[in-house]
Amino acid sequence: MLTILFDGIAYGMLLFVLAVGLAVTLGLMNFINLAHGAFAMAGGYLTVFAMQKLGVPFLACLPLAFIVVALAGALLERTLYRPMYGKPHLDQVLFSIGLAFMAVAAIDYFVGSSQQNIQLPEWLRGRTEVGDGALLLGMGHYRLFIIAVCAVLTVVLQLILSKTRFGSRLRAAVDDPRVASGLGINVNVVFLLTFAVGSGLAGLGGALGAEILGLDPTFPLKYMIYFLIVVSVGGTSSITGPLAAALLLGIADVAGKYFIPKMGAFTVYLLMILILMWRPQGLFTRKGGR
Amino acid sequence: MQRRHLIQTAGLTALALSMSLANAQDSNKFKIGLILPMTGQQASTGRQIEAAARLYMAQNGDTVAGKKIELIVKDDVATPDVTKRLAQELIVNDKVNVIAGFGVTPAALAAAPLATQSKTPQVVMAAATSSITEASPYIVRSSFTLPQVSVAMGDWAPKNGVKSVVTLVADYGPGNDAEKFFTERFQLNGGKVVEKLRVPLRNPDFAPFLQKVRDLKPDALFVFVPSGAGAAVMKQFIERGMDKAGIRMIATGDVTDDDQLNDMGDGALGVVTSHHYSTAHPSPANKKFVEAFQKANPKMRPNFMAVGGYDGMRVIYEALKATKGQGGGDALLAAMKGQIFESPRGPVYIDAQTRDIVQDVYLRKVEKKDGQLYNVEFDVIKGVKDPGKAK
Lengths: 290, 391
What we know:
The complex is a heterodimer of chains A (about 290) and B (about 400). By secondary structure, chain A is mostly helical. Chain A is about 70% helix and about 5% strand. Chain A has helices spanning about 1-30, 35-50, 60-80, 90-110, 140-165, 165-175, 175-180, 185-215, 220-235, 240-260, 265-280; strands spanning about 125-130, 135-140. In chain A, strands 1-2 form a two-stranded antiparallel sheet. In chain A, helix 2 packs across helix 8 (about 185-215). Chain A is globular and about 65 Å long. The longest helix of chain B is centred in the N-terminal third of the chain and has 26 residues, at about 1-25. The N and C termini of chain B lie far apart (about 75 Å). In chain B, the strands form two sheets. In chain B, strands 7, 8, 9, 10, 11, 12, 13, 14 and 15 form a nine-stranded mixed beta sheet that branches. Helices cover about 45% and strands about 25% of the residues of chain B. The chains are: A mainly alpha (about 290), B alpha/beta (about 400). Chains A and B meet through helix 1, helix 4, helix 8, helix 9 and helix 10 of A and helix 2, strand 8, helix 7 and helix 8 of B. Chain A: InterPro entries: ABC_transp_permease, BCAA_transport_permease. Chain A: Keywords: Amino-acid transport, Cell membrane, Membrane, Transmembrane, Transmembrane helix, Transport.
């Protein structure tokens, strides 16, 4: 029983890292970036190649995936995304989903479409068990590792947003770009950095998730729905919202598949519908808002 | 006026001449329309089959019974409506003599009515749901069926200490076939199926299903998932410590696909599967096949898809030889039925009643040889007909 809870939490945490970047761009920058999964996929493939071709150890791949994808995100923000900020949401949707399809086709063309496998280091492969009977808790080391990484990330992100000068600048830039720039905030730089971090987080999520979720060129489309569920259920105005939503969904998905396997993947959607009927704005939303 | 008339006539004559010339050329050609997923998730199937088909042509020449063989490869991305459109184009515009390939079941079924209407033989080289050959009297299959290979496992497992099993299959045609036929045969042999789990085809995380299996504590877990997902199931199976908890993993050969096996790592060692082909099949014919295949495609290792394509080409070639290049679809079809030959996978024949392939099914265990992983055969069930047809 506890094992299921544990697996659910790990899965939820993974969803959180994958989706939090989207929550940042969607919620804070008010930009609908459906190509988010493509950045995650980039992180995954980067890890696979760094490990297989260059022999980089797995742990070093994680920051590498974050940095490289963040840089790519920054480049794209400057060249492609920035002109789209002022456009209506439908334009943004079409633009970004087009990017996602291009990413899928590009990976398919250059790398091929088969599943990529990552060989984890030995110490991440094991499993520890505590207790027995109904209270048996079996913890895969890799899942423990995911939970740890994600917990640290959450705290850091929350601190940056709420306590630092950059956080307040970002919030100001989002709420009213004109006034913010009048106060001497360089809105463009703030957005550039935010988008880069959001992309980097996606890259990190892809690198972490390749082992559990699998990695093939359809990744951005396959998991887009999960990112969107996390963001829409969690609301986009904070870090805690998506975190709670991701955990809830992760646990519900795992538990649903365990206890009622016939319902398969449906549990998640049912839960999403119920939550959104109850709170259309998402679980945690700032009062007022936009 | 007259001159214009003359020019017109000349022009028309030239046109008519060139058309009849083109036609004359066409009648000396034998066209095979190969519809395969060359991009997208099933692309490895397409690449394997195309490589094998080209290998067969390179080895056996491209002129048979006075006809020049032309292979037209089209990419259907494993999407049935695209398959249907391509099949139509190939039959109507290109006037192909045979359509072949078909990576997935829905694709094969989408083309079936067209094969029937146009009386064009349809050689299925990959798709493995049992019912496919019943969709059209013009379908001949050179791959395998899932009932064929799952039943073999249902026979083997009870004799080898597996008394209770949980099945885990991907929830689509082939998966349901594998579940049904394995379960029936396993129970007939006195085994007990504790639980049947079906996972969505696009399943992100196998953890909850595997945990359920672990808590149910069967002697073994029977798995069928399409080849790409196999590695994920296997890794998580090991990670969860199920082998240490005394649960064995048995599966159909899709899970330890030769194309992917080396990437799966040593965790795959010892997994027992039943299938009709392994790269390591120890026959001279297969050694020759594997060597030639790898020489032509240095980065690839032929898997069961490749052998399906290779034998499919053989079936077409032999039918063309038998009809001496004359005769349409019906004559070709008649010549395809009942062919008996030595395939790289072992002796096979095309059952004249069902038009499905009859072949030996092997039990294999993953072992390491020269630093590479192989499915090494240790037992065989001879001449297995598709059990899905015995009604």
